[in-house]
Amino acid sequence: MITWPVGVNQIIRNESSGAGRNGITSDTMRSGKKKIRVQSTSAPKPLSIVMVFTRAEFQLFESWFEGSLRLGSLSFQFPKVAGTGNAEYIILPPYQWSQYGRDTLKVTMSWETA
Predict the structure, then answer these.
(1) Do 53 and 47 contact (CB within 8 A), yes or no?
(2) How far apart are CA 112 and CA 27, in angstroms?
(3) Residue ranges of the domains in the chain?
(4) pTM for the full model?
């Protein structure tokens, strides 16, 4: 299991958010009302994660994302965003970053439980 890169902080900012699972799908019928059904009982939980990295941490993160996670195609282990213990997550590309301070960057990512 791939773990979070050493040397990169794991602090998730308060402006991070999540949403409930969406495991339903709907079909439009030729006649009658729309048919709604459960597509999956194990649908992923979408999360919007905000973290602040120094420039050095961001370079480590970027190398880890491109190399170890193969541009987001692989999952990684991280402490649970809500709860205790660890969980498996996937970072959905692309992540976004912006200047936050003189030597810091604010990184916004979309994660899903794997």
Answers:
(1) no
(2) 25
(3) 17-113
(4) 0.79
